[in-house]
């Protein structure tokens, strides 16, 4: 019998967030000396002393089935952004809430979601930040002219329209904006902005290693999301030492800390352009963001995440 079984609702071959998380967690737990396997939707039932279910809502059926097969085994449910931002979190009779109540422990990716978790679940909820592993020697070395990165696949929750409006409004500022990721429904708008604005470059989908390398030379990472679970690009930026400018929403506050000074009012163009302008012109403010990001970096270290998960699993199977 395995020590732990990691259930991912997505196939291994896809580069979906849960699948990537499952492989990272398997590696860190194996390195901690635990016997761990990955289970996916559709796989034959497997036995383990502890189930780790990624995405509580989409894994609810597996949580119920696992508990029915092995009522004596522990269950850990990992809350993602798609869990806490879904209407089922407000419905106390939903499958998501039932699965969380059945779980022995609940893990949140950061502390920004605490107010969205039912009070009766808070006592068994633990925060474990996702980690980033960077190539050796990676560090923040910004270059001139100053460059701002936007990274992610462009959909309505990412609010790319606000970002492009800021690009146009700040055409006279010595800042270049570099956008990476799949354009989706915004492809035409992104291409048009790149054609009309000399300060905007749309690079489309690039290899992850290329984006990471480019991140080192940027002046800041920009996140304009109106809804976010915990952006991987923010984890990477913090690990590198790159300041982040982000909308003041739960997911971003949870990642960067409530006292972080690089937030702007979500959806507010004036607030965003004021922040970008201040970052460009106020060196003392920029260095404050650098210090705050450096102080936050430990949260996203691989060693720290490994220690936290190993300790939790050992507690669950003791």
Structural overview:
The mean pLDDT is 90. The strands form two sheets. The protein has a six-stranded parallel β-sheet, with helices on both faces. Strands 9-8-7-10-11-12 form a six-stranded parallel β-sheet, sandwiched between helices. Helix 2 links the parallel strand 3 and strand 4. Helix 2 crosses helix 4. The radius of gyration is 20 Å and the shape is elongated. The chain has 13 helices and twelve strands. The chain folds into two domains: 144 residues, Glycogen Phosphorylase B (Rossmann fold, 3-Layer(aba) Sandwich), CATH 3.40.50; 155 residues, Glycogen Phosphorylase B (Rossmann fold, 3-Layer(aba) Sandwich), CATH 3.40.50.2000. With 318 residues, the chain is of the alpha/beta class.
Main attributes?
318 residues; alpha/beta; Rossmann fold; 6-stranded parallel β-sheet; 17% strand; elongated
Helix content: 40-55%
Order of helices and strands: EHEEHEHHEHEEHEHEHEHEHEHHH
CATH architecture of the largest domain: 3-Layer(aba) Sandwich
Strand residues, percent? 15-25%
Q: Which ranges are low-confidence, i.e. pLDDT below 50, for 5 or more consecutive residues?
A: none
- Which CATH top level class of the largest domain fits? Alpha Beta
How far apart lie the N and C ends? 14 Å
By DSSP (H or I, 4+ residues per run), the number of helices equals 13
Mean pLDDT metric: 90
Radius of gyration using CA atoms only:
20 Å
Structural class category = alpha/beta
From the spread of the alpha carbons, the general shape counts as elongated
């Amino acid at each position: 019998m395995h020590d732990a079984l990691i259930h991912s609702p997505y196939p291994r071959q896809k580069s979906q967030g849960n699948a990537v998380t499952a492989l990272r967690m398997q590696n860190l737990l194996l390195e901690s000396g635990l016997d761990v396997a990955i289970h996916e939707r559709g796989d034959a039932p497997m036995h383990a002393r502890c189930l780790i279910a990624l995405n509580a809502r989409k894994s609810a059926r597996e949580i119920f089935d696992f508990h029915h097969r092995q009522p004596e085994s522990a269950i850990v449910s990992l809350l993602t952004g798609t869990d806490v931002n879904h209407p089922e979190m407000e419905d106390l009779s939903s499958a998501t809430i039932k699965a969380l109540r059945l779980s022995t422990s609940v893990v949140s990716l950061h502390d920004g979601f605490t107010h969205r978790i039912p009070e009766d679940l808070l006592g068994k909820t633990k925060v474990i930040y996702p980690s980033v592993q960077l190539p050796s020697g990676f560090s923040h070395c910004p270059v001139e002219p100053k460059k701002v990165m936007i990274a992610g696949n462009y959909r309505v929750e990412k609010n790319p329209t606000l970002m492009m409006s800021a690009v146009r409004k700040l055409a006279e500022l010595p800042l270049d904006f570099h956008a990476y990721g799949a354009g989706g429904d915004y492809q035409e708008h992104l291409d048009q902005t790149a054609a009309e604005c000399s300060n905007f470059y749309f690079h489309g989908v690039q290899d992850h290693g290329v984006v990471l390398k480019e991140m080192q030379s940027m002046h800041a990472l920009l996140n304009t999301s109106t809804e976010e679970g915990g952006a991987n690009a923010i984890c990477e930026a913090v690990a590198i030492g790159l300041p982040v400018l982000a909308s003041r929403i739960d997911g971003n506050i949870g990642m960067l800390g409530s006292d972080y000074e690089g937030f702007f009012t979500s959806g507010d163009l004036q607030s965003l352009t004021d922040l970008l302008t201040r970052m460009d012109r106020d060196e003392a403010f920029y260095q404050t963001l650098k210090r705050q990001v450096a102080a936050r970096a430990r949260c996203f270290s691989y060693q720290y995440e490994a220690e936290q998960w190993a300790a939790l699993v050992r507690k669950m199977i003791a």
